[in-house]
Amino acid sequence: MTTKQKAYIALTLTSIVWGTSWIASKIGVQQVPGLEVAAIRQLIAGVVLVAFFLIRGEKIPSWKELRWLTLMAVLLFISANGIATVALKYVPSGMGALISALYPLCVVIIERIFYKNTKITLGTFTGLFLGIGGIAIVFYDNAFHNHTEGYAWGIILSVLAMLSWSVGTIVLSRTKVKMNAYNATGWQMLISAVILFIMLLVSGDHIPLSQIPHETWGAIAYLVVASNLITFAAFIYSMKHLQPAVASLYAYINPIVATYVGSLVVNEKITLSIIIGSLITLVGVYLVNQSLRKQKEILTQTTDADAM
């Protein structure tokens, strides 16, 4: 089997498993607070990753690195992953995955407003319009078919989680910290887990570990092993050996997998409007990503030309 074939298998694994992770999280929050599910998941995965790299000889992060790791832990694993997990108590897993997929649109808007370094081309504008329009269709349809108390609150939490992930992505791209990416992720998970457990103790909104049902432990085990460890490695492998445009296809497949599997496993409703709205949203996200990629290529070519 060639390296490229392995990379496509890794991409397929990433697309499917990260899509089903939304359903696993949905199952996990049915009887246990979302922040507790996120805390346990991140603690186990963080300990495994940090221990692995310490055994391999990686040094404990310096105070400067710990400050940066803590900031990223708050943005990516507490405000983003943690809040998104809480939101799944109130919204369908497909809806949560679809809102999460909107983060490239949010990045464009933030970059444009605060840094003035992103042009709103026709392709970008069309993508933004379709992305927002598609999510509005799904939201409108779900509002009639979803009878879960707190649905609007779940939408707000999902959007806040997506915004936090967008900000975290921007901060990550603009910060130069010389750490192994896998190792840094492990420390971020570990730090976020400690903070989350403190939050749980202070709030009192948690249940004893001995009272967590088997279904929830099964969902957490799946999230840790399949999503955090195996699929994360597969994702990095596909990013290394495939073109960025191909490797990023998982982001468009995740919501589709989450919606379909959610209908089978947790009986979430699928209507024609939800399907159409989801496809429109994903086309919008694709157009925005393509527009950004072209802008980066032009900027790189200009920089190279100036350097000659």
Written account of the structure:
The protein is mostly helical and 308 residues long. Helices cover 80% and strands 0% of the residues. The protein has 13 helices and no strands. Helix 1 (3-28) crosses helix 12 and helix 3 (63-78) packs across helix 9. Residues 302-308 have low confidence and may be disordered.
In a nutshell, what does this entry contain?
The protein is mainly α. It is 80% helix and 0% strand.
List keywords for this structure.
308 residues, globular, mainly alpha, single chain, disordered C terminus
The end-to-end span amounts to 41 Å
Secondary structure tally: strands? 0
Summed up, the helix count is: 13
Category from helices, strands and their pairing: mainly alpha
Largest sheet: none
Please bin the fraction of helical residues.
over 70%
Average the pLDDT over all residues and give the rounded result.
Answer: 85
Shape assignment: globular
Strand content: under 5%
Tell me the Rg in angstroms.
20 Å
